[in-house]
Amino acid sequence: MSLTYSAGSLVAARGREWVVLPESKPDMLVLRPLGGGDDDLAAVFPAFEDVCPAEFAAPDADDLGDQHAAGLLRTALRVGFRSGAGPFRSLASIAVEPRAYQLVPLLMALRQRTVRLLISDDVGIGKTIEAGLIATELLAQGEATRLTVLCSPSLAEQWQGELREKFGIDAELVLASTVSRLERGLELGQSLFDKYPHTIISTDFIKSTRHREDFVRHCPDLVIVDEAHTCVAADEVHAGGKKTGTHQLRYELLQRVAADQDRHLLLLTATPHSGKESAFRNLLGLIRPDLAKVDLDSPTGRAHLAEHFVARKRADVRQYLTKEDGLADDSLVERTAFPSDRWTKDEPYKLTPEYRALLDDAIAYAADRVRTADGQGRREARIAWWSVIALLRSMVSSPAAAAQTLKTRSTAAVARSAEEADVLGAPLTQDSADADTLEGLDVAPGASEGEDAGARLLELSERAAALSGQQGDAKLKALAKHLKALLADGYNPIVFCRYIPTAEYLAAELGGTEGKPGKLGRKAHVAAVTGTLSPQQRLERIEELGAQGADDPAARRVLIATDCLSEGVNLQHHFDAVIHYDLAWNPTRHDQREGRVDRYGQKRDQVRVITMFGGDNGIDGKVLEVLFEKHRQIQKDLGISVSVPDETASGVTDAIVEWLLLHGRQGSQEALFEMPGTQQTLDRVERDWNSAAEREKASRSKYAQRSIHPQDVAREVAEVRAALGGGDEVRDFALAALQGLEALVRDPRDGSGDFTAQVGGTPAGLRDALAATLGGRLVEEDRQIPFRTTPAIARGEAALVRTDPAVGALASYVLNSALDSGTPGPRPARRCGVVTTDAVTTRTTLLLVRYRFHLTLPSRTGEKQLVAEDARLLAFEGMPQRARWLGDDATAALLAARASANTNPQMARNQITRNLDNLGELTAHLEEYGEQLAAALDTSHRRVRKANDEIVRGLKVVPQKPADILGAYVYLPAAPAAAVIPAGAEA
Asked: In 3-state terms, what secondary structure has residue 412?
């Protein structure tokens, strides 16, 4: 007759010890290796394999460690936990250590039966991490079973990588380019969304009626919408008298998705308002229909909104959990290293005489074309207008863009009406702040209105092409000067251009060829990323550029990109400066570009930004003065960036183009304001912009996150750190463990906390493990491996956080070598030790105890059974038979105790043996402590979910007996002298 094993009990099988998991049946045991993770699960059939109860062996008195042994073993154990017992099921298993402020949306989510949140934190704060935390937690608890992320196609691969690498979620990409392949693998009648439980869907794909209907019918129970502001329609009408079709289509889709009140929905956007109150209300209505009409001027209405809406600036979280946040002290303070400020400078350039002549002729042609078209009808006038704007924008961009545009047919030329001409022409020639996708908008627009470019345009095109190079193109020459200055100061810049031909032209002019250095020097690596590459190819090229010269501190990187990279893509790990080569016609586009590098994870304290503008091209200077200076003044006055509505920006730029066509490049600035209707336009722009700024400022105050108080976050952070450890503990562990394993460690002690290690002299088992995470070549060639205190690391570096793969490999080796006394080579952690120290006045014993708990967690989908672990330090004075137990603070202080004298080896063995022989005397206290831990965990789970009575009912936390004593360490007082030998003397 086979034995029945309860969840959490220990068994021996296949030559090792295992923990029995709740999924086990009498005829099949589901087992996890003791101290292992879920990746190592095994199914064992007792009828066919030998399985027997196991007891965790006591420490060996003959295997003594030094004064560091206890701390190293404790941290190695805690770093290895992937199934913590606390209320956050996911924090022990994810590969990212969230900031304290990023737990706020998670706490808000866990207080809701159905999670409905609008997360509107500032650019660069970490909305993806916050959404990933919630998704991982809901999946781990069984509150959700399937997940979909709706995002721009250009961000789909990045979302896939973030979910896989940081949260362990494998999501399938559902894009226009992948759907055919995915559908070929479906069974008859099977939905793509049933076959693949976790998906990332591009907003382009979902436009298809067939796929949209299939998605709604089989929609997962958890949906994340990135850049959610692009998926709602304002009640106001746009150009042409209609609502934006794409916005309306997505809005209707999300309305249907949100209609299921049991579906979890996370909306992410840094710009929930964008100056349109109705769009904001529609966004809130997706969260909860009543929020669309709630009175947000009343305290009750704002309190209701605060349960579902979080919006914070960098200044709100740069220093968090401080006395200013209402805490008693700064013991839990967390400082987040955002760049402190942006160094910005506007740099003018002057055209060469030849280029000025070319531009004057182009303006004259444009003026003639507009005058002629005005007499031919409204359709012809609008086609001519967009063709002229395309000509002028490409002309001031680069000779390459000008040459391409002048011989290409205008997109608007095929329009059958004036309204259609606006729809076709505007996206390619303006810089919309609300562009839902920047795909395809970096192609050079056409200026020809016929099938073939006329002789005049072809002549202008040939003249433009002849001006390529620094001799004819003063703008390129100015760029080279600015780049050389940035590179000399150690920066790695991104150069943003408007059009693909410009980016390719710059890369060809500045980059080197095989064996020949480019114009920026032998150490500068140059690459271009444009819309000609797929989103995946863009990320690959960025990574390739980031890897070039990685081993050479003098190497520099220059990325030349179009606005296909200005939204969503994270570039802060490889780049730290931005040059706006082409001045955008909306300041919000510059904010988007700069936000790619000026965000959390940027190592530079100061990001540099250079805005280039043509001082004599007749356009840039006026755009800079009217739009950008106003934008910067609002940002300076309010401390926030206010998006410029498209109609505001286009009203200004239209007036500037009209002025240019009338007066040419040399027209006076005053003439711009004297044009009929222009001053009224600028006055209206001023009023609308000021109004939007005031609304934004008021909303930041009115809708500030108040449903989760810093004290609530502080309590949970303290418990998480107590169970899993904090950053300082991990750094101390890694430093001591590597030194103990005979690595060559260099600690500069410069205040950064960073250090480097060469692991060529460490045991082969550790080298193999590190090679798998950091790269075999790095380990084989015994290069210096940087260990950094910031999570923002480059390839071949390790972050000093518990979830970093290299730290995990180090902890696993330290733990396994401590448990196996036969491990060859150095073993820095041991399961027992005796230390003579001035830190105690009486004989004191420190125990490292591992507890296992059987948790029953109710959820909407039924009860979930889990086995979780926790490691605790307990200490007592005297002998086990008459133990006087110490408090938590006194116990933790023993880890810092240092030997003040050497201990006689025989006496050490006698002392530890006396303890180990009497461990049974401690059983009652250890079991009582386990019950107290279980009660505290029960309280913690209920506190986090206090607003969700349905989930709290049926919650159980049961300690599994007996607890495992992993380590026992005796601390002896330094007196009497006869018992000790002075430190450094022979034993």
From this structure: helix
For the packed helices 378-397 and 353-374, what is the interaxial angle rounded to 10 degrees? Answer: 170
Which burial class, exposed, middle or buried, applies to 919 when counting CB atoms under 10 A from its CB (0-12, 13-18, 19+)?
Answer: middle
Is pLDDT of 453 > 60?
no
Is residue 315 a contact partner of residue 101, using CB atoms and an 8 Å limit? no
Distant-in-sequence, close-in-space partners of 306: CB < 8 Å, separation ≥ 6: 703, 704, 705, 706, 707
- Contact, 231 vs 190, CB < 8 A? no
Question: Residue 672: which pLDDT band, with cuts at 50, 70 and 90?
Answer: very low
E strands, 34-111, are: 42-44, 52-53, 64-65
Helix (H) or strand (E) segment spanning residue 890: helix 888-893
The single residue listed with the structure tokens 């067939």 is 210
Q: Which amino acid, one-letter code, is at 807? A: V
Contact of 90 with 927, CB cutoff 8 Å = no
CA 312 to CA 705: how far, in whole Å? 8
pLDDT reading at 893 higher than 60? yes
Closest by alpha carbon to 648, among 687, 590, 619? 687
- The answer to whether the CB of 770 falls within 8 A of the CB of 759 is yes
Which of these, 501, 590, 573, 496, lies nearest to 539 by C-alpha position?
A: 573
Contact 518, 526 (CB under 8 A): yes
Cα distance between residue 454 and residue 452, in whole Å:
6
Contact between residue 842 and residue 879 where contact means Cβ atoms under 8 Å apart: no
| Global pTM value | 0.76
How far apart are the C-alpha atoms of 746 and 764, rounded to whole Å?
21
Q: Both tokens of residue 819?
A: 């448990």
Share of the chain above pLDDT 70, in %: 87
Mean pLDDT of the chain, nearest integer: 83
Q: Residue type at 308?
A: H
Q: What's the confidence (pLDDT) of residue 713?
A: 83
Distance spanning both ends of the chain, measured CA to CA: 56
